[in-house]
Amino acid sequence: MSTQSESGFELDTLRERWGPRIERFKRGWDRYTTHKMGVAGLAILVLFTLWALFPDVFAPHTPEWKAYIGYENTRMSPEEVNSLPHPPAFGDPFFAPLGTNASGQGIYSMLVYAAGSALYIGLAAGLLSSLVGVPLGLISGFYGDTWIDETIQRIVDVMYGLPFLPFLIVLVAIRGVNTTNIILGIAVTSWLNNCILIRGETLSLKERAYIESAQVAGASDTRIVFRHILPNVLPLAFVFLAQDAAAAILAQASLAYLGLADFTANSWGLMIQNVQAHNYIYNAPWWLIPPGLAITAIAAAFYFIGFSMEDVTNPQKE
Amino acid sequence: MTRISARYLGKRIVVSYITLLVIMTLLFALLRSMPGTFISSMITPEMQPEQIQRMREVWGLNEPLWKQYVNFMVNYQTGEFGMSPTNRVPVWDIMIRRLPRTLILFGAAFIVAYIVGPLVGMYLGWLRGSRKDKSIFASSLVMYSMPAFWLAWLFIWLFNYELGWLESTYMYHQFPQFEWTVVSTITNVLHHITLPLISLAFVNWVGVMLVMRPSMNNVTEEDYVFLAQAKGLSERTVMIKHAARNALIPVATQAIVGLAFLIDGSIIIEQVFSWPGIGQLIVNAVISKDYPVAQASFFILAVLVVVMRLLTDVVYTYLDPRIKFGEG
Which of B22, B147, B256 is closest, CB to CB, to A292? Predict the structure, then answer.
């Protein structure tokens, strides 16, 4: 009997604690869905996430599939090889809705199978730069105008002086071209914006009355930062996360174009780079255009979500 | 109008200089942390041990690390970039030849982006929330999301390959029979610069617009805008003379960050259009493992960023009458 009442009690406190938050989330969600742009961005992102999770459902073949021969370990005839890259074909002589590339892989299947790596790079780089930038911005803002703030801001200043892409090129060239190094390289420079903007927000939040009352009540600095300031800057942090994710995906594509992509992992940037490597820029639009559109779509989706969220978190701006 | 004190300027210059020193230190550490040594890429299997030893001496690798560091810092600040092992010419000569070309493309793109961006941002901020604002804003975000090199290829395909209007490689005609008069040179360079310029500006103006739009929107709520409207001034006058001028201030701050993005963009665009500038050089140098050239190009680009930042900083403080001088 006692356990039942206890769990009932826990449920009540749980409801009490989370109720307002769920309410607030619902209100935010309602406001968010009034932005057509944000809804569109979310829809694109959901589609790409589904591609990444269940590629076999969406793609007719795996990337190992080859035109004419399918999965068999045989050779194509010379005429067949000459017909590659093949424009879109629907069943005759094979099924490839967006055509094939120069080695006979289906463009559409490759697009679907590369969605995962684009999402991974975007989210990992975005998360990583938030994990560095947000705490540093919080600390810098909370201890504004002290030596701590001064030190962090000087570091940010110097890092802004680094030319970003050259730095990334040199870093990746030295440390080795693989996805992890590319993500790390992107995060090394992209946390700066987060740090500066979160610092600004913290500086203004710090002056609010409820922070002062918490200080008077004897709350420690750590408690104030994590319980009172962090929840208020989190929505903003998500905005920057979305923007960083978009920037990271574009940066990876640029690196791939320059020949600094992980050639063992299929990615949209690499697909475009291959068009050039095989010299088909002017002759195979079905190969050149879809991966570029996919990159544009996923980056735009992140930007759409980011800017719609910014409107939701800053209602006074409307 | 001596609004900027010598003291303020001096302080900014010192800070920029220190920034550069730190970046150089970072560059030094980065290149020394490479697997192998600085010259391993230049050593061929046929080399005798004495040759390798001599090479190590030439590149100063036998000296203690601190001495190498001091030499590096002194040499770089006096323009001694060493020799390029692949081109067999002093790196300094390559840099001097390539820098102006990068500056032409970069400067032109900078001007275009910072004219178009604020103008569009001004209109969108003024019309904020309207249907027009939403659709233009969304489409410019789509432009912002396009991979620059892919977009450049589409432009080349359309304007060069299909229509044949504009050139897509190098900076001018490389044929000896070309007549080098002033007019023909200018038209020739214009013929070559248009496509890279459009590709570069097409993506980069959006970054400026993204700052101008909310800034403009904030300004429209200010009293002086209401006052101007109440005076019966035309919508256009209020928007341009009263609101936009004040909304421009954050754009100057953004320029500091925007510059770095423009440099990134110009590296990619130089590569696509074989524009013979520093951006193309650094990529080729890294790929062919020509480290002295890669290092020097990196350094030049860093100097470019730091100097441009100093300039925008000074212009910004000069523009904003609310900032007090000589105190900061």
Answer: B147
Quick one: closest CA in A to B136, which residue? A37
Across the interface, whether the CB atoms of A162 and B305 are under 8 A apart is answered yes
Q: Tokens standing for B242?
A: 């009263």
| Model confidence band, residue A300 (pLDDT cutoffs 50, 70, 90) | very high
Whole-number mean pLDDT of chain A? 84
Name which CATH class applies to B6-319.
mainly alpha
- The domain spans of chain A are 36-57+110-313
How crowded is residue A25: how many other Cβ atoms within 10 Å of its Cβ? 12
Peptide bond into A85 cis (omega under 30): yes
The pTM (predicted TM-score) of the whole model is: 0.85
Give the residue-averaged pLDDT of B114-135.
87
Residue of B nearest to A37 (CA): B138
Q: In this complex, is the C-beta atom of A171 within 8 Å of any C-beta atom belonging to chain B?
A: yes
Most B-contacting residue of A39, A244, A303 (CB-CB within 10 A), to test interface: A303
**Domain A36-57+110-313, CATH number (from 1.10.3720.10, 3.30.70.1620, 2.60.120.330, 1.10.150.390):** 1.10.3720.10
How much is the pLDDT for A292? 92
B298–A317 C-beta distance less than 8 A:
no
Mean pLDDT value across residues A142-158: 85
Residue B35 has pLDDT above 70, yes or no: no
- A213 pLDDT more than 90: no
Task: Count Cβ atoms within 10 A of the Cβ of residue A4 and give its class: 0-12 exposed, 13-18 middle, 19 or more buried.
Answer: exposed
Rg (CA), chain A: 25
A69 residue type, one letter: I
**Which pair of tokens denotes residue B25?**
């230190």
What the block records as the tokens of A154 is 């000087």
The span from the CA of A42 to the CA of A308, in Å, is 10
Interface probe with A: pick from B20, B149, B150, most Cβ of A within 10 Å: B150
Structural domain boundaries of chain B?
6-319
Distance from CA of A239 to the nearest CA of B (A): 14
User: What is the per-residue pLDDT across B242-296, written as a single tens digit (0 to 9) for each?
Assistant: 888 888 877 877 777 777 788 888 888 888 888 888 888 888 888 777 778 888 8
